[in-house]
Q: What sequence folds into this?
């Protein structure tokens, strides 16, 4: 079902702008999927989920004023929530109370008003077939036209867009290739994404530190899964990375990960968790396809062993200083290894 606020672009035009990664199937031979998390403000939650229902179909389930679901839409089940764990817990508990305390409700309402000034609303999508991502991009245009606000609207709006791409397989060599491709392209990705200062000063999208990058780039580094996980956890016992690997590693060995990182927000799943891009939903020149195309440079590099080996060696030289400054700015140098068709 389409809402009246849908843009005038044809479906064919939208779909044609969405290239696919080199590997389009998972290890079971099924189409790879991707989950998206969008942080924003500017529209009440009930209005957000109503727009989504009109655009995608489905039924609204209200858990509390801070937590709603769109069930059985044409793309699956979505969560729509205020990203404040205490209020969500309180809302669920109050829904079970026979005689809610009025004073408590008043205090909760005051906290809600305050939270909405600094805490984003968040849409968490189901895993969506990559070939259908243009439909989610279409939905974001609907929300923009309804008044959604992104990172640049206020200095304290440290809102992000997270991409959770399913891995093509779960072999250690494949995971290592993705890590190497990401660290080699990180400086370019950060520049391309124009990461807002309000997000740079938070720890949530920290880069990998130099000792771990040097380990990844060693030509003879070819760990089995257990060693790959242990090395990652030793260097990165935190969710606060621009590419958070903990959901994927928990999927491979949950006990190992939980022993090293006591954080119940880690959700086991066979995906990466890419957290770098801003949410720029209020900008009419921005769309989901832009961060998607940037991410596809990582996909393409990870799936091209000769090109990955060349950039890895060059980055090693850059980090060691052996080039004597010849390479200059790494973001600029790494751009030489990008695919121009994804620019």
A:
């Amino acid at each position: 079902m389409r809402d009246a606020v849908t843009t005038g672009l044809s479906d064919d035009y939208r779909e044609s702008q969405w290239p696919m990664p080199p590997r389009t199937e998972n290890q079971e031979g099924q189409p790879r999927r991707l989950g998206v998390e969008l942080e924003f403000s500017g529209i009440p939650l009930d209005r957000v989920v109503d727009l989504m229902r009109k655009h995608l179909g489905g039924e609204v389930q209200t858990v509390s004023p801070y937590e709603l679901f769109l069930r059985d839409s044409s793309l699956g089940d979505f969560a729509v929530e205020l990203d404040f764990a205490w209020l969500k817990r309180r809302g669920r508990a109050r829904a079970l109370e026979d005689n809610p305390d009025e004073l408590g409700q008043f205090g909760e309402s005051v906290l809600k008003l305050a939270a909405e000034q600094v805490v984003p609303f968040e849409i968490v999508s189901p895993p969506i077939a990559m070939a259908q991502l243009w439909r989610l991009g279409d939905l974001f245009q609907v929300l923009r036209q309804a008044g959604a606000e992104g990172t640049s609207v206020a200095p304290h709006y440290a809102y992000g867009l997270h991409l959770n791409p399913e891995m093509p397989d779960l072999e250690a060599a494949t995971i290592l290739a993705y890590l190497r491709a990401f660290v080699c392209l990180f400086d370019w990705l950060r520049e391309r994404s124009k990461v807002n200062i309000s997000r740079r000063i938070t720890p949530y999208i920290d880069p990998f530190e130099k000792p771990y990058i040097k380990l990844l780039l060693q030509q003879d580094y070819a760990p089995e899964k257990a060693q790959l996980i242990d090395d990652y956890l030793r260097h990165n016992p935190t969710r606060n990375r621009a590419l958070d690997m903990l959901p994927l590693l928990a999927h491979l060995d949950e006990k190992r990960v939980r022993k090293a990182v006591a954080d119940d927000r880690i959700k086991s799943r066979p995906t990466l968790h890419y957290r770098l891009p801003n949410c720029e939903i209020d900008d009419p020149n921005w769309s989901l396809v832009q961060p998607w195309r940037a991410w596809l440079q990582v996909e393409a590099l990870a799936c091209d062993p000769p090109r990955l080996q060349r950039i890895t060696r060059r980055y090693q030289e850059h980090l060691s200083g052996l080039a004597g400054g010849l390479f200059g700015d790494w973001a600029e140098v790494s751009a030489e290894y990008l695919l121009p068709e994804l620019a």
In short: Residues 1-13, 84-91, 102-118 have pLDDT under 50 and may be disordered.
